Amino acid sequence: MTLPALSTAVHLIQAPLLYKGKVRELYDLGEHVLIVVTDRISAFDYVLEPPVPAKGTVLNKLSAFWFEQTRHLIPNHVVHTDVNLLGDIVKDKALLDGRIMVCRRAERIDIECVVRGYITGGGWRQYQTSGEVNGIQLPEGMRKNAAFPEPIFTPAAKNDVGHDEDISFERMKELVGEELAEQLQAKSLELYTFAREYCSRHGIILADCKFEFGLLDGELILIDEIFTPDSSRFWDEANYALDIEIDSMDKEPVRTYLASSGWDKNSEPDPLPPHVVEETTRRYTDIYRRLTAASL
């Protein structure tokens, strides 16, 4: 039996709510923090209806998979992902199974660490305007979706309100200090290279991705989520080509539908049609299966 989609866990968790994001909810467990990944889906700064079944489970379990895979490269914030260890604070363990992550508390570094292996998306738009991406001068005549000779690090300053701000590496050093900036850059590139090679063995291109890091007792650790369809751009190798808009292995059906719906992006959108929701669930579960060789 397929469990219903989860739009919020507030009524299921007997612990103080610390933060409610577009997808994740954070609860106070004292020494640790409980992250619940819901099935909410967002686009253009709006949370859409209805939620997408299995999306949160994919995001949480895929992050847990990658945190384990990269543990030899950098420590992370995961304590455990077993809902049964939460005891009586959870009202419906079956519904939350696969959706929770108990994490160590860390001091978040307010930089979104972005690595790009291919020139596409926002990086392509920057290049068309200035010939640069985040202040990095690039060769003339690059084509959309072309691979960089070497991956590039393009950070963004995190804003709690509004969009994150693309910044140069020099500006990042001013914000967090040269030593930490260089650490973040090196670890981000190392993580991307590891995951890109892994994905390639499974017929998937990791075009770009983003990381968040924190400090715990002075040690740099990886936090939030990694290499999920919400934090990375995955392409099926079979669909790769230059100079086109490649169909990403994520919530592309939602973006495609909204672009053709006449929605003005300034008001609450109409509910997503069932076929769009079903196709989006299929996309998320497919990337999970292909990367982990497991079913949900």
From TrEMBL:
InterPro entries, sorted: SAICAR_synt/ADE2_N (IPR028923), SAICAR_synth (IPR001636), SAICAR_synthetase_CS (IPR018236)
Pathway membership: Purine metabolism; IMP biosynthesis via de novo pathway; 5-amino-1-(5-phospho-D-ribosyl)imidazole-4-carboxamide from 5-amino-1-(5-phospho-D-ribosyl)imidazole-4-carboxylate: step 1/2
GO annotations of cellular component type: cytoplasm
Catalytic EC class: ligase
Domain SAICAR synthetase/ADE2 N-terminal: 17-267
Gene3D superfamilies referenced in this protein's UniProt entry, alphabetically: ATP-grasp fold, B domain (3.30.470.20), Phosphorylase Kinase, domain 1 (3.30.200.20)
Transmembrane segments: none
Pfam families: SAICAR_synt
GO BP, sorted A to Z: 'de novo' IMP biosynthetic process
Keywords assigned by UniProt, alphabetized: ATP-binding, Ligase, Nucleotide-binding, Purine biosynthesis
Catalytic activity: 5-amino-1-(5-phospho-D-ribosyl)imidazole-4-carboxylate + L-aspartate + ATP = (2S)-2-[5-amino-1-(5-phospho-beta-D-ribosyl)imidazole-4-carboxamido]succinate + ADP + phosphate + 2 H(+)
EC number(s) from the headed UniProt entry: 6.3.2.6
GO molecular function: ATP binding; phosphoribosylaminoimidazolesuccinocarboxamide synthase activity
NCBIfam families, alphabetized: PRK13961.1, purC
Listed PANTHER family: PHOSPHORIBOSYLAMINOIMIDAZOLE-SUCCINOCARBOXAMIDE SYNTHASE
Family recorded in the similarity comment: Belongs to the SAICAR synthetase family.
Record-given protein name: Phosphoribosylaminoimidazole-succinocarboxamide synthase
Organism annotation: Paenibacillus campinasensis
Taxon lineage: Bacteria, Bacillati, Bacillota, Bacilli, Bacillales
Gene field: purC
